[in-house]
Amino acid sequence: MFVPALTIFESDTKIVFCPDNHPELGEDANRDAISIESGDDGQDPIVQEVDVRHLSGDRWKRTLKRAYNVLGIIKLVRGYYVVYAAEVTLIGPLGPNSVRVFRIDRVALEPVHRARAARGAERKQERRLVKEIERHMSNGSFYFSPDADITRSLRAQALDKDENQFNRDFMWNYDIAQLFLRKPVLRQYVLPVICGYFGVEHFDIPAGDPTKSPKRITIALISRRGTGRVGVRFHSRGINSHGHVSNYVETEQVLVFGEYTCSYTIVRGSIPIYWEQPHSSNVQYYPKIQVNRNIARNLPAMQLHMEGVYKSYGGRITMVSLVDQDGPRESDLSASFGLHAYLLRAVMGEKADETFKYVAFDYHTHCKRPNYDEGIEKLLEDLWPELCRQGFSCFGPAGQTMSLQSGSFRVNCVDCLDRTNVVQSEIALLALVRQLGHLKLFHRKDMDKKASYLRSFM
Known about the structure:
By secondary structure, the protein is α+β, with helices and mostly antiparallel strands. The protein has 10 helices and 20 strands. The chain has helices spanning 120-136, 154-159, 178-181, 295-313, 331-348, 351-355, 363-366, 372-390, 418-438, 452-455, and strands at residues 6-10, 14-19, 33-37, 46-50, 61-67, 69-75, 80-94, 99-111, 142-144, 194-205, 215-225, 249-257, 260-268, 275-276, 290-291, 317-321, 356-360, 393-395, 401-403, 408-412. The strands form 3 sheets. Strands 6, 7, 8, 9, 10, 11, 12, 13, 16, 17, 18, 19 and 20 form a 13-stranded mixed beta sheet that branches.
């Protein structure tokens, strides 16, 4: 896999991204470089792999700019720009194969087009767009890896080992990378980028025998935000006609111990019906929730969404709704979700049982202080059979598949934030306890469903 370290060379009509082991263009340079040339009359740029020894006749200028990943090419007002990662931070490495994951700290845009005359307003608009794109993509929530496809979970990679089968639902540079992805020889220069989070922590598990050293484990958390329905809070809610929901995030918890790797995946997403929180110029702290469209429009979209999630995770999806069932703010939305889940089961018939299960849990009522422990324990007891049914993915030496997760939890509140975070964390702790037990890192007496032993040292 291509190592993301490139120096940028420019001429009047071309940009070349050249690996750092080729400090200058000329006789000693090798072929591993990519040339991007402006097209004629507004056509797409010409992207090709080149032998840089043939470029020495052009009037080249070596810049001080370095690229660690070429994200793609985007068209703005005056022409095309190459989008690339200008500053990155190494996160990891992770796993037996020491997979490197980089966080993008700064994104830059480099113009491909020839300079041409433009009105002042046009230049101003272009500068604003460039600045906004660079600012948005430099917020520290974008990641890539030169060693592995991080758009897909370990389970998905085990089922399809084709390294070029990126999951476009989580690949945020898929559209702007098309000029590279269409040609197999160019794919190595563009690494898929996810939006979300990637973190790695190391822990010591106390040994049962006090005379023995603790056992070191590594835990990684990977959150992949979906690309299907993107938008900020209040502006993007519910579902669209393609079955995509707002705030859709796949979170994968990876446990590494020696040559063994375990993975558990859980998802979140906005309530999968048409609803919104419209707000006017009069700022409201909590705009009123409105459920839109009728059952005939909502059910097909919801069915499309649930069948897609089921297909992705290969087993029954347990929908856990944490929305308030009483009170003026959320009760109508909760009731509508429950009604549509009931009707969807009727529409799908026997297929419904294997596709999804609906669990409504009023988080604010049951987990109100000081009753949090009692309330969350009740929910986890209800979810425990589903967690055992799903299992988890486990891989042994040389990546041997020992087991694969079947199904997942789909958790939501209104914003898919605080309440969802808490419940997903509790479910993930239970999954981690089961994985540690499978690897014989826990004694039987420690494997209680509350995971209190695990919390004691994490």
